[in-house]
Recover the amino acids of this structure.
């Protein structure tokens, strides 16, 4: 009869507080799920505008905190992921009931509930803003666990949007952020049965852990983007696009081009044009020095993530023009043992020359055999047959055509859904093959009538289960005999909003001190 | 379950629940033991976890009695169990005479959490002792003897505290003393001023919402006016936050919702985390004099036991989290709405809801109404207790960490229990 509590394992620091966040989110999600669309629109706009208002500050802060990327490019993404996303989906409706009289069905959207969002260090604030905006559009509560390298800026961005959302009527606690992320805490949040869906953007181990958690997860695989240029391409425009796209945010995104594959016939003209656009094509000696620098022992050195091309060049003892934006590293064969054929999170672009388009398609497939299946590829060509052949052969779920891939695959410069999370589908071991968008965060309850024509369907026109909240949510707990009194803001509440006071750690510290004293004594 | 070891807990065993009840009468408390059996609540608690308690028969109950907030954080709250388990590797109760690590840490945390005028902490081992300390402190600070409380107040049963309460409990032990412990009706400012006018009152002691009286709510402005009267007539204000503290009203200390800075604040019950008994008295600088004049003035071997301090630190931290505060607001909003819906279904029977946060009293249209409801709720898996000093009113005290699904289940069960109790009373009336 005595239960087994004595074997209860100790929770790692921060885990209890994380669980409390999930529980609070559960209450918030329940309240949010009955909001009407007008209120939600107000909340989305308020949060997005609050995020956008500080987009520049957050862009600079993210570069400072992580040491990666380019502030002006991050600014662009921050704006795209806040007010940009809000505008993009303004006309979409994830809330109102859909009545299909012909099909004798009524569809009621149902939010996931509690969304756990893991966000990366490479695209930190933009991903936070993106996921928050998606959650708000679909009436979900969201708990964000930012990458530890970017935790401060992400926490501030989330708090900024949360405050604006709540001020616009969102339920209290619908946006929360983990201030001190840690592996045990992330594991606890991912495996918590109250987590309704995990949005995992980040490294492969984290994404795999999300899928192992036992909870529904949308995680995406890594990219390794081949870009094919054939002889029919508009060479000058292509050169400019590739240089701009490769150098975007100093190439820390999964969408930046990794290996340029060019048809021999177009090669000289393209490289000349790229040089004019800010590329430096490395000689074989220079290429070897850059390879040794960036891939010592054949493995990528994270110290070069998102660093400027000129910094990499100078460390590799390569003299380049001060306005050089990318380094182009030629090599012959796309094989796993060639480091330059792997994903490079810095402005170094692999280059392979091929005799024919067919060999180019083979090379692109080889790039993806190394990594990046299901992600994206790009092609610059005016030949529809080539584009079709390339797209059908290469194992990716989106092909950017005549546009840089970094903003093409993410839907900012194409009509794909604008996103910070590229679904890699079955090819890339993911549950979603599209760009992540709001629709992925809801299910639908379908009211399905007897299809037999003799059974009539009732008239549902104008019926809605949703309503605007009556006031702040939840209502402030005033005494029931004093419900109309103004809410009293207590003068002396010490709210422990910061990192939890970890008593256990303190006790451990005391014990260790004590033990040390004994040992010394 | 085989009969021979039906209730074998290793430390002790009983052949059956009946044997427990018999021996409970024989060796412990025959009055109480029989009372509950006769009230239709034949409960002997076995397992306990979260907001559930289980009778030894296996019957599960949702606890909305919580022993007045002792189980505010649930039974055997995981964080509480862990904190104390870890603490036991190093600490015991400590020596009550010496300055101590845990007592100092808790005192600092309590002071940081409380109204700004409170500066020092004195520990007791339970609420009653803490109230006694508060009364002694007030007497020392004012050099006056009398303590004014309200009729049907409940501040515990220790030597001094019992005098502030209902004479049912003081007369029994020849401890009634209206001279030193005058009483006035609740919500009656005139009566209070009449007594205070004599300027011989050391302190007025008030539960922020009188629990055992069924949580009648102070009229808007009443407590504020009492505090003003105290200032006018040089009496201290003792806030008994034993049941209303620790986020139960949606703020850490209920009294802060009234903007009152009490001279003395008493906390107990929930501060233990339901795991290790402890209580505390927070006093202003004016009241703290005796701690300097004679630091040995109040001695309590168990008061401020270090394991208890660690439990209290953890409980205080959990209660004071932003997440917890938010959840209490959701819970009180949700359950409040649910109860109002139930009330709308049985308006002739369920006649009132007294609510401030998750502190709730449900009024029924019969002098013993809450006893009927208690019994029917028990049958339907909810444990809530009637108010000893006003049995029309059921004390209904959900925990501050209740999850949405449990809140829904609780309301379902409550609705059925209330309906059945109504039928009981109606048929009994016909019979009469
Ligand atoms: C408001 C109040 N004060 C004081 C006490 C006394 O606490 P204890 O039973 O721990 O002595 C109680 C106990 O029910 C109480 O409800």
């Amino acid at each position: 009869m005595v239960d087994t509590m004595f074997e209860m394992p100790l929770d790692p620091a921060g885990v209890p507080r994380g669980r409390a966040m999930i529980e609070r989110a559960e209450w918030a999600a329940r309240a949010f799920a009955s909001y009407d669309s007008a209120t939600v629109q107000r909340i989305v706009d308020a949060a997005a505008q609050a995020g956008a208002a500080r987009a520049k500050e957050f862009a600079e802060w993210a570069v400072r905190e992580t040491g990666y990327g380019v502030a002006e490019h991050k600014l662009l993404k921050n704006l795209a992921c806040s007010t940009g996303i809000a505008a993009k989906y303004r006309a979409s409706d994830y809330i109102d009931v859909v009545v299909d009289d012909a099909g004798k069905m009524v569809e009621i959207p149902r939010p996931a509930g509690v969304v756990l969002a893991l966000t990366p260090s490479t695209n930190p604030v933009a991903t936070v803003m993106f996921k928050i905006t998606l959650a708000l559009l679909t009436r979900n509560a969201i708990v964000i666990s930012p990458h530890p390298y970017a935790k401060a800026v992400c926490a501030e961005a989330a708090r900024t949007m949360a405050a604006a959302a709540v001020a616009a009527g969102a339920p209290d606690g619908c946006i929360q952020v983990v201030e001190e992320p840690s592996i045990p805490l992330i594991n606890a949040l991912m495996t918590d049965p109250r987590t309704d869906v995990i949005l995992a953007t980040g490294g492969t181990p984290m994404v795999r852990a999300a899928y192992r958690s036992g909870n529904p997860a949308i995680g995406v695989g890594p990219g390794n983007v081949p870009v094919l240029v054939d002889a029919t391409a508009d060479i000058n425009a292509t050169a400019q696009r590739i240089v701009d796209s490769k150098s975007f945010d100093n190439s820390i995104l999964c969408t930046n081009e990794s290996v340029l594959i060019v048809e021999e016939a177009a090669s000289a003209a393209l490289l000349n044009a790229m040089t004019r656009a800010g590329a430096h094509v490395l000689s074989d000696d220079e290429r070897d020095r850059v390879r040794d620098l960036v891939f010592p022992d054949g493995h990528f050195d994270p110290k070069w993530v998102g660093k400027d091309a000129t910094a990499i060049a100078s460390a590799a003892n390569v003299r380049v023009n001060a306005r050089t934006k990318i380094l182009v590293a030629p090599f012959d064969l796309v094989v796993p043992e060639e480091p330059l054929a792997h994903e490079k999170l810095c402005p170094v672009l692999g280059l392979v020359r091929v005799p024919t388009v067919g060999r180019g398609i083979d090379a692109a497939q080889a790039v993806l055999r190394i990594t990046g299946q299901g992600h994206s590829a790009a092609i610059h060509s005016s030949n529809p047959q080539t584009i079709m052949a390339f797209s059908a052969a290469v194992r990716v779920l989106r092909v950017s055509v005549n546009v840089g891939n970094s903003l093409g695959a993410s839907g900012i410069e194409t009509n794909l859904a604008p996103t910070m999370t590229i679904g890699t589908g079955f090819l890339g071991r993911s549950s979603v093959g599209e760009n992540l968008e709001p629709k992925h965060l809801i299910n639908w309850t379908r009211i399905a009538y007897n299809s037999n024509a003799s059974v009539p369907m009732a008239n549902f026109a104008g019926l809605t289960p949703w309503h605007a909240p009556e006031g702040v949510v939840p209502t402030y707990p005033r005494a029931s005999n004093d419900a109309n009194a103004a809410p009293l803001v207590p003068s002396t509440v010490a709210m422990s909003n910061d990192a939890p006071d970890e008593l256990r750690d303190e006790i451990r510290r005391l014990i260790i001190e004590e033990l040390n004293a004994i040992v010394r004594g | 379950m085989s009969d021979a070891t039906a209730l074998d807990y290793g430390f002790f065993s009983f052949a059956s629940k009946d044997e427990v009840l018999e021996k409970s009468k024989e060796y412990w408390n025959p009055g109480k033991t029989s009372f509950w059996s006769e009230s239709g609540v034949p409960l002997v608690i076995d397992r306990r976890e979260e907001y559930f308690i289980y009778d030894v028969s296996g019957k599960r109950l949702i606890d909305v009695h919580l022993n007045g907030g002792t189980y505010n954080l649930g039974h055997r709250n995981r964080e509480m169990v862990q904190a104390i388990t870890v603490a036991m590797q190093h600490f015991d109760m400590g020596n009550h005479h010496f300055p101590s690590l845990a007592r100092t840490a808790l005192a600092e945390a309590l002071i940081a959490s409380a109204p700004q005028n409170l500066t020092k902490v004195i520990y007791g081992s339970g609420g009653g002792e803490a109230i006694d300390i508060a009364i002694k402190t007030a007497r020392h600070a004012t050099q006056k003897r009398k303590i004014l409380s309200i009729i049907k107040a409940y501040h515990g049963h220790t030597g001094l505290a019992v005098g502030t309460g209902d004479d049912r409990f003081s007369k029994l032990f020849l401890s009634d003393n209206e001279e030193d412990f005058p009483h006035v009706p609740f919500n009656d400012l005139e009566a209070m001023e009449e007594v205070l006018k004599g300027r011989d009152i050391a302190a007025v002691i008030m539960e922020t919402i009188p629990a055992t009286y069924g949580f009648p709510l102070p009229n808007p402005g009443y407590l504020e006016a009492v505090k003003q009267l105290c200032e006018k007539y040089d009496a201290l204000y003792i806030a008994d936050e034993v049941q209303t503290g620790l986020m139960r009203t949606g703020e850490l200390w209920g009294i802060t919702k009234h903007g009152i800075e009490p001279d003395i604040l008493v906390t107990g019950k929930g501060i233990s985390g339901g795991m290790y008994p402890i209580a505390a008295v927070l006093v202003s600088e004016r009241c703290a004099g005796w701690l300097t004049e004679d630091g040995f003035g109040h001695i309590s071997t168990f008061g401020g036991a270090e394991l208890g301090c660690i439990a209290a630190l953890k409980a205080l931290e959990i209660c004071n989290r932003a997440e917890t505060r938010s959840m209490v607001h959701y819970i009180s909003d949700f359950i409040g709405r649910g109860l109002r819906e139930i009330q709308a279904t049985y308006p002739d029977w369920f006649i009132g809801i007294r609510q401030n946060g998750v502190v709730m009293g449900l009024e029924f249209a019969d002098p013993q109404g809450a006893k009927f409801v208690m019994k029917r709720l028990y049958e339907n898996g909810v444990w809530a207790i009637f108010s000893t000093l006003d049995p029309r009113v059921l004390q209904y005290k959900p925990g501050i960490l209740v999850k949405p699904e449990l809140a829904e289940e609780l309301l379902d069960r409550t609705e059925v229990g209330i309906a059945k109790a109504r039928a009981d009373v109606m048929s009994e009336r016909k019979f009469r």
Notes: Chain A touches chain B through 51 residues (CB under 8 Å).
